Amino acid sequence: MRVFLNPGHALGGNPDSGFSHPRLQLRECNLALTYGSLCGRYLELAGCAVKLLQSHNLSGENPGYPCVVDMANQWGADVFVSIHVNAGGGRGPETYCYRTDGAGGQLAACIQHQLLWGLAPYDRGYVDRGIKEHPSFCVLRNTIMPAVLVEVGFIDSDDVGILTQHGDDIARAIAQGIADYWRDTKTSVPIDMLLGE
Predict the structure, then answer these.
(1) Distance of CA 72 to CAs 59, 92, 150, Å?
(2) Does residue 51 form part of some domain?
(3) Which domain holds residue 9?
(4) How many C-beta neighbours within 10 Å does residue 157 have?
(5) Tens of pLDDT along 23-75?
(6) Do residues 83 and 35 make contact, with C-beta atoms less than 8 angstroms apart?
(7) What is the pTM of this model?
(8) Which of these, 169, 168, 157, lies nearest to 120 by C-alpha position?
């Protein structure tokens, strides 16, 4: 399986770092890159081919930087996962897809389930915000493979404990969700995630 991982916002935070914590030195771009890099390592250990790109040129709007959608499509990824951190005072993960009744919806459900199963035991406030359609997100609209955008938690709420102390668990949950999706939809293709199952 070929997995394209897109940690949100610009590499190094310039010119777009995403959300930040109002008091702590935390930026969404750094957290997303940490989770994406760890997730990629787990997937590679499982035998997957992984490509990771953090760029604020999502669909050609910043032509001086690598284009996320073009690279994913040209590489021929089997799945696309964009990793983000939310803000606005809520709690818990939510995962977006183009259509909930499509393959992206299945992928979103697998990742959302693993995030909750793996992380809610650490904090009862880390609640299920659900799977949501968002066809206007260009990384969901313009990719040609099943694609999701996962918001792993809120940087400006008590989720910050999960985000900072359980980054490895977040990465493992995303990787396991991808593996679950692949097993459910491509049962003839073996994948051994070796994540404690």
Answers:
(1) 11, 28, 17
(2) yes
(3) 2-185
(4) 20
(5) 999 999 999 999 999 999 999 999 999 999 999 999 999 999 999 999 999 99
(6) yes
(7) 0.94
(8) 169
